[in-house]
Design brief:
Jelly Rolls; 7-stranded mixed beta sheet; 322 residues; single chain; 10% helix; 36% strand; mainly beta
Length: 322
């Protein structure tokens, strides 16, 4: 594969195209400054304005959220796995019907495999603009987002209406639901009982991996972060490894499906049969299936990257501890 062909499968941090109207809370005070990015796959955006950088199916989606300090993403749920790692900033994740069942604060490099089927939100509690990278299970990411009822109700007061088909309409821009199409129905009290309210003690030990803990495990071989035998034991349709300077291999290798490289720290030289490139934190690279390649730090200093590859497991519910 030529460098020119491979460049079409690389999304540089500085080339990310944000969407500020991706979801129903786009006009809600406190959430109206967030930026959403769809990097690989169709994502779950409710807006036709969302730009998709790479549409090649991988068995999962890659996205990102960028937010200034004190900006939050409203309470929502997914039908498939949602995994975040912090690229920059300091973030508070919270969950439950009203967002008060539990919470955790994540720093740069920390990774959170949020349990499927609970309402979750997050906010930037740092002092600068921050970015979190996301992995969503399945090529269609479970068919979209399920919002807590109060989010839909509050959004209506700011002009945004979500159709039953999952598309946004801005009444302040003169838009209205098409004939024959109704608004997204609110979850009933009976339906809401199906959404668990796990505590912080339930969630953090089983679903959060701290960056420096994972780095310590990657001293000789890549650390399995998410997978059947991973630190966060799960089978959500993809696996996540962390590779560091100590565990990067000189050997070329390949996968039988597309894989993704996402640096967290340091600069990484990736070479393959036909070319080479350098990735920096915030860059995302999709490596074609069957292509021999390798990644090594290209400079001195700390260096780590997350590696994601799909599996044959269905993109269903995350594993729940017993």
């Amino acid at each position: 594969m030529t460098p020119q062909d491979m460049e079409a499968r690389i999304v540089r941090y500085g080339e990310l195209k944000p969407c500020k109207t991706a979801f129903i809370d786009a006009h809600t005070p406190g959430s109206d400054q967030k930026e959403n990015f769809t990097i690989i796959g169709g994502g779950v955006s409710e807006s036709p304005d969302q730009h998709v950088h790479i549409s090649i199916p991988h068995g999962f989606n890659i996205g990102a959220a960028g937010q200034p300090p004190k900006c939050r993403n409203s309470l929502h749920s997914h039908r498939t796995a949602e995994v975040f790692f912090v690229l920059s900033g300091r973030w508070r994740f919270f969950w439950g019907r009203w967002g008060d069942a539990g919470e955790v604060v994540l720093e740069e490099g920390d990774i959170f495999n949020i349990p499927t089927g609970i309402f979750r939100g997050f906010e930037n509690i740092g002092t600068d603009y921050g970015m979190i990278m996301a992995i969503l299970g399945g090529d269609d990411a479970g068919g979209g987002v399920i919002w807590a009822p109060q989010v839909i109700e509050e959004a209506a007061g700011h002009g945004l209406v979500l159709s039953e088909e999952g598309k946004l309409y801005d009444t302040k821009q003169g838009q209205s639901l098409p004939d024959g199409i109704g608004p997204m129905p609110l979850l009933t009290d009976d339906e809401l009982t199906a959404y668990p309210e796990p505590t912080t003690a339930d969630v953090v030990p089983n679903y959060v991996a701290r960056y420096w803990d994972v780095v310590a495990l990657a001293d000789k071989a890549p650390a399995k972060v998410i997978g059947e035998n991973g630190m966060l034991r799960d089978k959500p349709g993809f696996e996540v490894d962390l590779i560091t300077r100590a565990s990067a291999s000189e050997a070329m290798h390949q996968h039988n499906r597309p894989s993704v490289l996402m640096p967290v720290t340091g600069h990484w030289k990736v070479d393959w049969e036909g070319g080479e490139t350098v990735l920096a934190p915030g860059d995302t690279m999709s490596v074609p299936e069957g292509l021999p390649h390798r990644a090594k730090p290209s400079m001195t200093g700390e260096a780590a990257l997350y590696h994601i590859v799909g599996t044959d497991d269905p993109a269903g519910l995350t594993w729940m501890p017993t």
